[in-house]
Each structure stands twice: as structure tokens, then as C-alpha cells.
Protein 1
Amino acid sequence: MKEYIRKYKNWLMLSIFVAATIIALVPLFGVLGYVLKNGLGALNIQFFTNLPKAMGLSGGGMANAIVGTLIMVLIASLIGIPVGILAGIYLTEYDRHSWFSTAVRFATDVLTGIPSIIVGIVIYTAVVLKMGNFSALAGGLALAIIMIPLIIRSTEEMLKLVSHSIREAGYALGISKGKTILKIVLPTAAKGIITGAMLAIARVSGETAPLLFTALGNQYWARSLNEPIASLPVQIFQYATSPYKEWHQLAWAGSLVLILMIIIINLAARFAFRSRHS
Amino acid sequence: MGQTLSVRKLEAWYGPNKTLKGINMEIEANHVTAIIGPSGCGKSTFVRCINRMHETLPGTKVIGEIILDGESIYDQDPVALRKTVGMVFQKPNPFPSMSIFENVVAGVRLNGQRNKQNLQAIAERSLRMAALWDEVKDRLNYSGISLSGGQQQRLCIARALAVEPAVLLMDEPASALDPIATTHIEELIRQLRDNYTILIVTHNMQQAARIADSTAFFLNGELVEHGATSEIFTNPKDKRTEDYITGRFG
Ligand SMILES: Nc1ncnc2c1ncn2[C@@H]1O[C@H](COP(=O)(O)OP(=O)(O)OP(=O)(O)O)[C@@H](O)[C@H]1O
Ligand SMILES: [Mg+2]
């Protein structure tokens, strides 16, 4: 009898877990499926090669938005990855316990949780208004600010995973602290740090809000980094909220491309760094 | 060649806790000196003072003198000192990102030795000394952590020897190993004895009896007794040493 009750309880628990998992998966696959269904039809070569066309005309594409997103993510990475990794190294290796590093760590946590639109407003006020125009630089900077705390945190976590005994082994061989960090600790944590950076890239490449009033958007090619530039998320937003059916189609195609980009970056982050030794 | 160490009135602190309470000890060159004593008596702390590793922890303090080959270690650059005073830790800790070869030559390579042939020669010599060469010579570029625990520990010994220290500190180097690996390490220590000053912490009294020329008994941060191993084990002068050795406490 007792055993029967126990089995029944087990079965009940298991069904609850399974049910929760299914509830979590349905929207996930729902989103993917919906975007696939609507986006695949509109996806063609012209989407990747053509500029947007005026409404009513067919054959428009998002070439400028794809390139724009790549450019701004590149700018963000060039700023955010070095700054984030170096700060992460400083906080774990040189200054783990002081009030300063505690304050920085707290600020990073807060910054991670801040809605990204606020970063956009700040850059709008501090950069766009000062320079007098929307630009790829402003957009890239906004994305960098979102990236930095993510990378600081992931770098810190990865460095903390490197056991203290590894550092002591370095010192005990008469290797200086700087070299121990650079040549022993960092390589040990490298895969994790790079993975963290790539996930941060994936995360910002879909950001829309901070680009709305920093990069603005552009129906044509931007001729320099100092003028408004198109991006996939903003273009999707504008097309999806327009009243035109053709543009809705393009928005779906853009969504599909964006999702694929992010999936590819995520996969690369996970699989590119398999162990180098057998 | 080994170098003599003489420790004078050494006190070591962790924050407010005085862990070593004035140690005076002479450590002979080309000798194996064992340190025994109950857990928490300060053996590791003592050994870590000798390569100035103790002071790298935040909140620690050291008072007193340690003279290595006539010169105070506190007058030397700690990074340079650690090339003369090598250390092997309790748990094997090869560098995970490095191959077996890179592990062995890490100390010399990161300190500027770039010549491939020299590095090759250093690696082979050190691995032979650590009695590991035959087991790994065909897979030098496998990861250091692909080895068994006992092999990893010998790899760490080879890595320490590659820097050509005069003093080798070993903090329970065999405590994580099985009896066969332990025998390997003990043989190795006996062979190294002629050319190094070896200081080995051990909980295993048979081990101390097997390999050490002299033995020091620590208790509560003090050096109770230090003498020839045979004397300490058969004819201890201090009652507390006798109690510990006969297993009456600790
Ligand atoms: N990092 C540390 N911070 C504070 N106290 C410490 C630290 N390391 C050791 N101690 C304390 O110092 C004393 C001596 O420790 P130590 O590690 O030298 O002992 P031990 O003789 O090596 O012991 P065992 O045989 O268990 O390795 C202990 O009371 C320990 O609690
Ligand atoms: Mg110890």
C-alpha cells in the first residue's frame, strides 16, 4: 500500500515536471515555427542584395539593414569585448575584495538589469544631440554599453573557475603575477571567456530600442559611420508597424534572418572551442 | 647542488592568528628533512614561508629570518627566490591549458628560454629525473590533465625540477596517490636527495622513516623536536614527540 502511494507520488511529480517543460517549449517552438512559416516565403536573393523599395513595388530587400547590423555589432564588439574582458581580469585578478571592485560589481549588475531603451536615451542625449546627428557610431556605442557588463560578468565567472592552485603553481615556479595571469590563467579560461563574448554579441544583435534614437534607420546605404544607418531590428519594427502587406512580408523575412544569425552565433559559441588536445 | 636553510625566530600570522610561534630550525643541504605533526599545527604554513608564498595571501604577516645559503630570503625578490626554492603541492596541479611538454618547461619558457632544442633537452632531463619520461615520451603534446593522478604529480615534480631549484619543498606530495604511485615518488625523492635540499611534509610516519635523513616534529605552531630520523622514531627526547609517534594523540 505504502509503495503504491510512493509510486503514485513519483508519477504525479514527474507529470508536473513534464507538463511545465511542455508549457515552456510550446511558445518557444511556436515563435520559431511562426517566423519560419511566414518568413521563408518572403526570403529570396533580392532580400539580401536589394535596398528597400517604395511601398507597392515588389523586390525590395534589407541588404542595408543586414550590413548596418553587422557594422554596429562590430563597432560594439571592438569597444565592448576588450573593455569588458580587461575589466573582468582586473576585478578578479587584481582587486577582488576592495570597496572599489564591490562597487563596480554592483554597478555591473544594475547595468545588466537596466532596460536597454534607457541606454538608448542616454546615448541620444550624450552623443546624438552633441554631435548633431544619428549615426552608426552612436548605435554601436549604445550596443557596447549593453555588452560591457555582460562580458565583465562572464569573464569574471570564468576566471573564478580557474582554481587558485593553478595560480600558486605559476608563482611557485618563479613566474611573475602578470605572466601567470596572461600565459596560464587566461588560456585556461579562454574558451569560457570567448563563449561569453559571443553570447553577448548574440544578445545585442537583436536589440532594437537602443538603436531607435541612436542609429535611427535609413532606407539607403549609409555613406559613413557618422550618419543614420539601417539595422535589422529597427527595419523589422518599422515594416511590421506599417500598414502595407509587402512590408509585413519583409519584416517576417528580416525576423527569420535575425533569428538565424543569433542561432549561428550561439552555436558557434558552443561548438567552436572543443578541446585542442585529444 | 642543495643549499642550507636556517630559520630563525620565524612567526607567521593569518590575520590576528599567530600560526607559527617562533621557529628555529637548521635544514641541511643534500638532505631529506621530513616535517611531521598533527593537522593544523602549521606544517604547510611553515613550508610556504620558505618560498615566500605565505605572504601572497591577503592579511598575512611574517616576522623573523630565513637564511638561504648565507643570504636572507627577505632581501631577495620573491619571484627570483622561487626559482631557487621550488615547490610541489599536495594535490597535483598541472596547467590545464598546456600539454605535457609545455607543462614541464612552463617555468623556463615563461622566464625567457625560447630555444626549441634547449626546451626539448630540459623537458627530457626533467621528465627522466621525475621517472615519467618512459611513460609519456610518445605523447608529449597530450594535455597535462590527461595523465593519471600519480603521473600528474610526477609531472608537477618534473615541472619544479626544470627550473633547477636548489631547494625543493614538498607538501604531502603523495597523499593523493595510491601505494604504487607513492613508491614511485619516494624512490624519486631518494634519488634527488644528493643534489637538492628537500623538505617534505608528511602525515605518513612510515614514509618519513623510509625517506628522511632528519625529521622535525611540529605541534601548535612550535618546533618540538628536530633530529636524525632514527633518533626521533626510536629515542625521542620530548614526551610530546613520543606520544605523537606512538599514536597517543594527533
Ligand atoms: N588561508 C588561511 N587563512 C586563515 N587561517 C589559515 C589559513 N591556512 C591555514 N590557516 C590556519 O593555520 C593553522 C595551520 O595551518 P596549516 O595549513 O599550516 O596546517 P598543517 O599543519 O599543514 O595541517 P594539515 O596537516 O591539515 O595540512 C591552522 O589552524 C589553519 O586553520
Ligand atoms: Mg598542510
Protein 2
Amino acid sequence: MKVVTGVIGNDIHVVANRLMDLSLNARGYEVFNLGVNTYLEEFFDAAVETGAEILLISSLNGEAEGWGREVKLLKSKYKSLDNLIMMIGGNLTVGSGNAEDIVPRYKNYGFDLVCHQVDLNTGLDMLEDYIKEHQHA
Amino acid sequence: MSNVSDKLLIDIGSTYFKVSTDTSIEQHFRDFNKQILDDLNHKCGETVQRYEPDNIHICSSANGGLSTLIIGLTESYSLKYASNIAFNSGINIIESIVFQNIEDYSIPSDLIDVVIIVGGIDTNGGVFDERLDSYLSKLNYSNVVFVGNSPDAQDLNERIKSLVVLPNIIDDRLHIVEAHLKEYLTNLYQQDIEGKEDIKNLYDITGNQIYSTPYVVNKSLPHINAIFSVTDPFILLDIGGATTDVHYSKDLVSDNIVTEQGHDRIVFKKLGVYKSRQSLVYTAEQNEFAYELLMHLKVTENIYKENSEKATKVIMQLAIFLVLSEMSHYRPSYVTLKLLAMNSIVFTGGITKVLNQKDIEDVVAFFYRKILNSDHKPVTVIDRNYDIWTIGAKEHASCQ
Ligand code: B12
């Protein structure tokens, strides 16, 4: 499957992004890594150009919240992204916060999978489960 | 570099033409009642006759180049990449269409020289459905080229008459691949220049190929330090009669486009000071700060209707301001340059004959204060003798 990934906004924390690229490749995905400093529109546009099934966004520096609120409106302008699996992970809030609040909020923003401070491999296992579930459905 | 001192360099613009020998440079207003060759012979016949056809090199920007309409899948990749290549090949973009919304766009009535269709990496086919055919059937165009995903290429080749298919300009890592489309467009521009009756006649006096002026100017940019003290990053503004050309250092854009050359080009088709004066005035009327600029220059909007020397000067100052605005965050468009990081700004073309250093610096400072809220002051360099064009042309002549 094709995955578009990268770090959103003006965020330059690159380490997790590199690891993400390696892990996704190792798990057999075809990876389109847009790297750090990527804007929401570029993520969606890359999904359109590649025909990706999955969009996997990282955010580490605390910008995620602001971008999250833009997702629904921007995505509604695209006519071919209805089936795109949307995932986000990293530090999804400024300072500390708890997953019970954060996860439902981001689901409301339009993400299918939300991983606040979840280890990468745990997150990718969740993705695999999600895909399996939805293929059967 | 071989000795080019015995060469005559001629540049034909939409408003002026200029003729450069090793010792002099002449500039003349064109007489539109005459064919360009006659006009040239009339005004500089003696000079021209002193040179063998093989030693005369001509470039032309008359008529402002070819027009294109681009149909692409997304703004960030296909349209952006195709626009970048088109501008760098000297082509003007009439319209960019995001394919998913193609039915919402109106059909331009002008004849389009070349339609560019692009989108999708090679493993993503089936993206251009019959809405494309339907749009094209209503459009008036001379050439059509496909530079998108390879599965669609085969299919479209059967559906669209006279389609030229070139390799995808988007590679499998979503990076730009310029070479093929650039070569195709440059050749098309070349053929167009040569096909123009007016220009064709010029082959009577030259034995060399006639090139497009932007191509020649772009050649000179790596050598600009030989004549001016210009610090990178810089932009070069060539404000012409019909269009305005901007060449800018790549360092001024934070972008997903990674290409090889150090300078890119953008054209503002409707911002010129003679032929496009009306649309320039229109653009000014849409810009809330342009009015303040007029006040700053101590004139009123009535100046637009005047035909005085003063009016020409103001129009040129407006052109500088509007072009800078178009490239700043104030008017989000194809490129936004990091103008606060810009160290030099070079002016060439007709305006250098009309405006002095102070006139220019005044507008540049006004722009930075009003639009960017800053006292930043890039060094202003004025190319009064067309040295930039001369080195580009010489560079070119010596490679042939
Ligand atoms: C190294 C670092 C930097 C370096 C970055 C160098 C570089 N180019 O990468 C520098 C010094 C430049 C830097 C700058 C800043 N940083 Co910093 N930085 C760190 C630090 C110490 C380590 C980050 C790291 O690389 N970790 C290793 C990687 C492997 O782990 P990770 O990033 O946490 O990612 C893991 C998971 O989150 C997960 N993951 C990540 N993405 C995704 C996505 C999905 C889908 C899934 C499932 C999982 C997942 O996978 C990874 C492995 O498990 C962290 C603190 C920390 N200890 O985490 C702060 C930290 C991330 N930075 C922080 C901040 C605030 C900044 C600055 C704003 C500081 C400032 N005021 O200037 C700037 C921001 C610059 C910018 N424009 O982005 C904060 C963010 C706080 C927040 N979100 O509320 C942190 C948490 C420090 C803190 N505790 O305050 N930083």
C-alpha cells in the first residue's frame, strides 16, 4: 500500500520522521516521505498525485492542534480523498495532556487513528489492525 | 571565451530595439508602421552593414512569447512543476486548472499556443477521465503535450488528437524532472519566433539562430558579478513594454522544487509600461497601497490618463511596486519570494533610461515599509547600458 508521510507545519524535528520512513519500508509499504516542514495542502496534494491509501502525519513541536482544526475544511475540497486513511502521531498538544481528551478531539478533526506519545511500532501495529478490520468490513 | 569583439548584438523588444557593438550601444523606439527589418535598417543601417551575417546575433522578446494553459492534478506538484518549467522556458501562463474542478473553469477565448497536461506519478494511472476530452474539445489551441503518469499517456494518446507525449515531470519520489518538457517548450518558442513574418525577415542579415531574450538573459546571470557588485540572493527585474520578467535566485524560495539551475524566472504578462499599460493601471486600482504610493509620489489617479514624461515615470514606479507586491506574501501566487532575505535588486530594460537611482530606491523603500513593515534595504543596481543582455548574448555567441 502507498503511504504519504511527513512532519506538519514549521516543525523541524526530523528524527522520528527518518525512523518512520525506515519502519514503513520494512513493513512493506510504498513510502512517499515529504520530510519536515510540510503543509497540510502538500500532504493532501501528495496523496492525490501518488494515489496513496494512507496519510500519516507527525507533529512533535506542539503545532498539531492548529492544523488539526483545518483538516475537515481543506479535505472537503478534494473529490478523491474520501477513502484516505488518516493517521497522526507524535506530541499532539503543547506541554502535557492526556490521551483520553486528545484522541476523541483529533478523531473529531477527521483522523481515523490518533497516537499521542505512542511509540512508533505500536502505532504501526494499530494501523495494520485498522487496515485488516476495514478490508473485511 | 573566444574573441567576440567583432560581433554585433541586436535585441528586438515589443517597444524598443537595441544594437550593441563592442564600443557602443544604441537604443531606439520601434516604429510600428514599419517592418522591423526596415526600421532597423533605417535607424542603424550603417552599423548593420559593417558586419558579416555570421557575426550578427539577434534575440527577440517581441510579442511576449508563447502562451500556455496548464491542466494538472494538484497545485503543490503538477501545476507548480509545470509552471516552473514553462516560465524557465520563456512561456507565459494564461491559466492553471486543477483537474478535479475543470468543469468550473471558463474557457479562454484566445488561441492557446500550447496546452500542458500533467499529473500523477507513474504508478498512479486512470486519473484523467472524459472531462478532459470535453474541456479540450471546447478550447482553441495549437499544440498539446502530456507530461503526466505513463499509464494515462497511452490512453490519452488514443483519445486526444496530435497529442505529444513526453516523460513524466514528476518522478516516483515526487521530485521534478525538467529536461524533456523544457526542451520541448524552448523549441516551440524558438519555432514561434522564427515563424513570425517580421522576425523571419531578420534572417536576411544574420547567419545565426535568433533566440528568445529571456533565454539569453538567463545565460548571463551566473556571470553577473563580472560587471556589477551583486550579492546573492538577488532578483533581476526586466520591466518591459508588454511584460515584466523577473529572474530570482533559488535561495529566495522555500519550496519543494529542487532543480539544478541557480535562478528561476517568472513572467507577469500583464504588467508592462506601454502595451500593457491599461492592465497595469487596472492592477494598481485593485491594490490598496498603490493609491498611497501615488500620494507619496505627490500625484493623483489622473496621472493614469496623462501622456507626459512625468506620467511615464510614475507608471514605471508603479510597475516596480506592483511586481514586488505580486511576489510577496501580500498577493499569494505561484511564488512567494523571501524578500527580506534579498540582498540585491537589479534593474534592467527600458525603465533604466527613465528612472534614476533615487526614483527607484524611493519605491523599493516604500514597498518594504508598507507591505513588509521593514526598513530592509537591498542594494539597488541599475543596468543602464544593457550589460546583462550583452554578456548573455556574448556568452551565447562564443558558445556557438
Ligand atoms: C532533538 C530535539 C530538538 C532539536 C531537533 C533537531 C532535529 N532536527 O530533529 C532542536 C534543538 C532543533 C529542537 C527545536 C525545538 N524544539 Co525540540 N526537542 C528535541 C527532543 C529533545 C528530542 C526529539 C527527538 O528527536 N526524539 C527522538 C525521536 C525518535 O522521538 P520523538 O520525536 O519523540 O518521536 C517518537 C514518537 O513521538 C513517535 N512518533 C512521532 N511521530 C509519530 C507519528 C505517528 C503516526 C506515530 C504512530 C508515532 C510517532 O515515534 C518516535 C519514536 O517512538 C524533544 C524532547 C524529547 N526528549 O522528546 C524536544 C521537543 C520535541 N522540542 C520541543 C520544542 C518546544 C522545541 C522548540 C519549539 C524549542 C524552541 N522554543 O525553540 C524548537 C522547535 C523548532 C521547530 N521549528 O520545530 C518540545 C515540544 C513540546 C510540545 N509539543 O509541547 C519537546 C517535547 C521538548 C519539551 N519537553 O519541551 N528540538
